[in-house]
Batch of 3 targets.
Target 1
Amino acid sequence: MTTPTPHWRALTPADLPAMMAVAAQVHPGFPEDEAVFAERLALFPAGCLALADATGLAGYVVSHPWPLLQAPALNSRLGAIPAAADAYYIHDLALLPRAQGTGAASRLVELLTGQARAGGLGRMALIAVNRSAGFWQRHGFRLTHDASLDRKLASYDDDARYMTREL
């Protein structure tokens, strides 16, 4: 019997407990409060997606418009999406091991690229962690250094890299 391919769908408030469990497993060194994710979902639901498979939530993404070179601090509430947002920011992508290698992350990059373009944003940005920079580079992101981000990057770990992509 073939296992169904995981698929991306809208994240809902009911998904938050399962999302927190995925976050704890995938990003144990970067804990964020459920309230942070709930706020992002309320502020920009189109950018919050769940990866569903036959056994439940296998991953998620939280993304939203945000000013380039101004990454939000880890575990912080936004208050609002700034009117000056000029980039599409991927705040968090987490996949459980069972979803890795399924193509779900690559499909997601295509989905988010479409959202960014539809929103009139010509750039995407993210902070790569857990040695994921190579994945993002294969999808057109490049390392972008700006001294103003050094303190925020240090709040993650030595491997954290700010990356951008021109659309």
Target 2
Amino acid sequence: MPRIALVTCRPGPRVSVDRDLPVLVRALEDAGATASAEVWDDDGVDWGAFDLAVIRSTWDYSWRSAEFTAWAERCGKLTRLANPAPVVRWNTDKRYLGELAGAGVPTVPTSYAAPGEAPGLPDGHEYVVKPASGAGARFAARYTPGEHAIALRQVERMHAEGLTAMVQPYVRGIDTTGERALQFFGGRLLHASRKRAVLAPQAPYDERKVAHPGLEPWTPTAAELAVAERALAAVPDAPELLYARVDLVDGDDGRPRVMELELVEPNLFLWLHERSLPRVVEAVLEAAR
């Protein structure tokens, strides 16, 4: 009887509720495992007592990225951690988009400004500023060239907190075809979803956003699936991934590009794709064995 920890975080006003967590715990128990939800920064948890720890909804990590990655390193030495600690360290810093682009994966063009560096804010088109370590659209905002002064204040605020700023063009395809999330589990496509644009014009960067507005099931195209698979194949050192989510948008040429590659704590949206639950349970049990 495998012992499985589904890793989450403490509830709080800035943290979303994981609707899938109690459902997945119950389904694993029904399948014969011993499963429990455990808080990643709870010093009382004996991670070595579990056969597998699956990172699920550690949605406060972006406020404490260094602490979280250090925990992943420790946990990975005590039990099998999914996804592995090196993947966590690589994927919690969105500078990985540059590595994917260098490997030939179509991505949204991105520039970076670490603390002390001036960001290159574009003229002639809308753009997005957000932190290289972030989740749930935290500290993300959309600007026009006439709003550079406001954008620079946002960058200053992020730099004061030690965060690297990212600058991307606002991809207009989001307004028409939305953002598609292709979810993989156990090495295979599990399901896909589509959502509307998260960032509204002139919405303050420090305002809490609705992370997944208008979410609906989606059938991925062959082109979307091909880009997602190229992105996963480009992850360094070819790790064994229990789960992955590839978020795609259409570029100006109408072709899909990677917006983000979620390998740490992607929302599974099982409440929207109830038929996927047995496959997730099967893959988790196989990983625990």
Target 3
Amino acid sequence: MTVVSGHGRVLVGGKAEGEVLRCTQAISGWGGIDPKTGAIVETRHPQRGSVLTGKILVIPGAKGSSGWSGQFHIAKVLGTQPAAIITSSMNSKLALGLQVLGVPALIEVDDRVHAALQDGARARIDDGRVKVWVQGEETGDDDV
């Protein structure tokens, strides 16, 4: 098993651990997820059908309307929210959504860590520290 550790800039503090769901495209705010099931339902989204509930959601950003915060708030109320979010791009829709969602969120994660955040890996976030476990030979440090 390979262990990769690093840091990111904290958008919302906290601790979380879970399986990684990496999205190759931003998720639409209105109609991008089904808050009842936690599934991505956006018609043309490459990860359509994937469930984000309890996952470390890695997304390039948010798109669409200000419904992003509303949909993710409903997911939180229903218990279908992701455990944490790691993003590479910030906009006002995502910033508001992250505050409403209240799960740990990071941006500007180290390149080596970001590359390791692939579907099926496990990750732990402890404020600005990130640790990722992937299949293979064990390397890296164990400080998170």
